[in-house]
Amino acid sequence: LPGLHVFAIAFALEVSVGKTNTVMALNNSNVLLPCTFITCIGFQDLVFTWYFNSTELLILPPLPLQIYHGKIKNKASEPTVIRHNPRVEFVGSTTKKDNNISIVLNNVEFSDAGKYTCHVKNPKERNAQHNATIILTVVHKMVETDNTVTLIIVGVVGGLIGLLILFMLIKRVVLFIIKKTQDGKKECLVSSSGNDNTENGLAGSKAEQKAPPKA
């Protein structure tokens, strides 16, 4: 049934190595290989394994490719190691909010570059399995990113924004001056329309009008 299918997907086991699946490390340094898992119904006797250039999907992978193998009894207990490479250190925790099963690879060498797969198997979900892979690149030195193009773009955009702001300020000043000039002209017109035009005898003047002479 469709409803049962959606229900089954909602409770599926999921493994993640973060937003990016690539990591770059400097030769002879230590590098973190992140991995977390999610299960909505919890877990019991969960088994997780880290593989190098291999996955659990292969039948009986060679033991050297299995760089860390651990088991977690339940949510209240931390993982116990079953087998691990001497240079691999477990740095995760499963008693906290996120089920973290990350590891650190110490003193990486150029030969350590490759694919690292984090595989999880949960017997509580009818032995549901899932994995995620992260790619490690080992370099002699870190290359500094050339931000020249970025700085040029930021400078151009900043200049355009500055010009736009300056244009808006000039526009406001010009409009303010025009408004003041128009207001001044209106005041002059009002003032001139109410002047006393006695001397020139214009219409609307206050001069006394003499009565027409009698015949």
UniProtKB/TrEMBL annotation:
It is found in: Membrane. SUPFAM superfamilies: Immunoglobulin (SSF48726). GO terms for cellular component: voltage-gated sodium channel complex. Residues 190-200 have a biased composition (Polar residues). One of its GO terms (molecular function) is transmembrane transporter binding. The chain crosses the membrane at residues 149-170. Gene3D superfamilies: Immunoglobulins (2.60.40.10). GO terms for biological process: cardiac muscle cell action potential involved in contraction; regulation of ventricular cardiac muscle cell membrane repolarization. Its main location: membrane. Keywords: Disulfide bond, Glycoprotein, Immunoglobulin domain, Membrane, Signal, Transmembrane, Transmembrane helix. The keyword Membrane applies. Residues 187-215 are annotated as: Disordered. It is a single-pass type I membrane protein. Residues 2-135 form the Ig-like domain. It comes from the Eukaryota. PANTHER family: MYELIN P0 RELATED (PTHR13869), SODIUM CHANNEL SUBUNIT BETA-4 (PTHR13869:SF14). This is SCN4B protein. It comes from Chaetorhynchus papuensis. The gene is Scn4b.
